[in-house]
Amino acid sequence: MASVPVLYHAEEGYFSQLARLALAEKGIDYKSHLISLATDEMHEAWFLRTVNPKGMVPAMEHHGKYYTDSSDIMVYVDTLPSDGPKLFPDDSSVMGDRVGHFSDLLGSINVRVVSYGSIFHRHLTVDSQVSPLMTKEKVRARIEGFGKNLAIVQEQNPDLKAGLSGRRGLYDEADTIFDEKRVIAVFEDVDRIFGEVEEELQKRKAEFGDDEYWLCGNTVTVADIHLSCFLHRLTFVGQAQRFYLSKRPLMTDYYNRILQRNSFRVACGDANSRFLKTK
Prior knowledge:
Blueprint: E1 6-9, H1 14-26, E2 31-34, H2 45-50, E3 59-62, E4 65-67, H3 70-77, H4 94-107, H5 111-120, H6 136-156, H7 161-165, H8 174-177, H9 180-208, H10 222-236, H11 240-245, H12 249-259, H13 262-267
Parallel strand pairs: 1-2
Antiparallel strand pairs: 1-3, 3-4
């Protein structure tokens, strides 16, 4: 029996959703190993020594090799035998160049700041699906606790310091998340990027028609994985009205079509509902 990849992931984790959606679009079976973000399981010694010394999810093992970044996972997944779409078209092609551009553009968005900044500054949101019990105090405690736990792990396991020292985690974004003006500046970057995305969707719709267009062509690519997961997160944290419902009809239509895809329902579905759960 051929071995299947083992995916170490957090159900609610944004980057874990990217990896799961890539696997689902390609139709590749995998063994799921859930990691708890609420208990900082990714910082436990077994995970750091065996799976990812940087203490981050997702990570994937296949044939004894570990892939410890969502981008690397998606690239590798695209090389596996599959009847699914080519997520990374040849970068020498027009479509491949387009996919590279929009993947980089969407990948540059600071999703942590958008997510936690929206929850911390709830007055900047509309129709947030985040529980009102998740107060500013709880968000602050979660972020500060992340940094403290990481420091404890390094103190108790000196041999793991090297792997953890270079990573940027949630705690490193705290000053930005707690500063409303800096959060709004990140929102403005998203708005600029989404303006370009909406223009591209208009071109693709004109080229392929109402039901056949995706961001870079008439098939789903890694650029669509980035866009669909981010739209899903924006909707959850109450930013849909700000970024697309009120002014970007093609993006709204795009997201509605994404929600109908079985691959998306399986990979993402209501995963965001577990975001910031404490148990």
